[in-house]
Amino acid sequence: MRNGTVTTFILLGLTDDPELQVLVFIFLFLTYTLSVTGNLTIITLTFVDPHLKTPMYFFLKNFSFLEISFISACIPRYLYSIATGDRVITYNACVIQVFFTDLCGVSEFFLLAAMSYDRYMAICKPLHYVTIMSSSVCRILVICCWMAGLCIIIPPLSLGLNLKFCDSNIIDHFGCDAFPLVKISCSDTWFMEWTVIICAVLTLNMTLTCVVLSYAYIIKTIFRFPSVQQRKKAFSTCSSHMTVVSITYGTCIFIYMNPTSKEKVTINKVVSLLISSISPTLNPFIYTLRNNQVKKAFEDSIKRIALLSIK
């Protein structure tokens, strides 16, 4: 986004109605607080509880870190805008916001695919699981997720840095995003638009294929288990991840594949806001409420804190 005549942008947000802005602020503040608290709790538990020193929780810890980074890249700035009425964002701050939201968002998809592979190894190859999913392999997979996210966003971001803004600096969104920026650019944006769409579709297809294949083999293996108890236990270890995958992919597919959402800007903004706030808030609760090990680790930590406070 080449800095020609435009040095700042104005973010319109969701609404100009003062009463609605108050409601939006309260809603976003609560979801942001819950998201950061919930994900930080998961990160802390995986560090302090010895029962959570497994590949599954290593990936969960990194996923929680990504969720905190993603929501912190866009929501605090919008909260500040509502609270102060200052809708101006500098050119550099806008570029940084686009970079971090896209990097964290894309990396999340690859990490979800890596988590699916981990569940596949745990259920379909239990005898080789500890050997294959060693700590070094897990670290390499997480690094690869970050690098894949970086490689996906570099082409459209490089093109975006050359965009010119001549006539307007008003972004019809609550944060800096690719499509609203392209809309107000006076450059030829055809190639960049297709690059963004191709990168998005490529990310979704690559990661979703990995997820679907992993769970196809998982379900096939589970149905071969002789007892109902074994099947139930196997499904319970995957249920939280499957729920998060459904929410994440469902909302993103709605934005990129649904023509109506592209035509109706308001719907697109609301859905984007839900992705940025609701999904990171729900994920820690999904993993804690549906996972007995995490619940037990949380209860043990509370007991230890209570004992220390009594002493």
TrEMBL record:
Pfam families per UniProt: 7tm_4 (PF13853)
Domain G-protein coupled receptors family 1 profile: 38-287
Gene Ontology molecular-function annotations: G protein-coupled receptor activity; olfactory receptor activity
Residue ranges of the TM segments: 20-48, 60-83, 89-115, 127-155, 194-218, 239-258, 270-289
Keyword Transit peptide applies: no
Similarity comment text for this entry: Belongs to the G-protein coupled receptor 1 family.
Protein name (record): Olfactory receptor
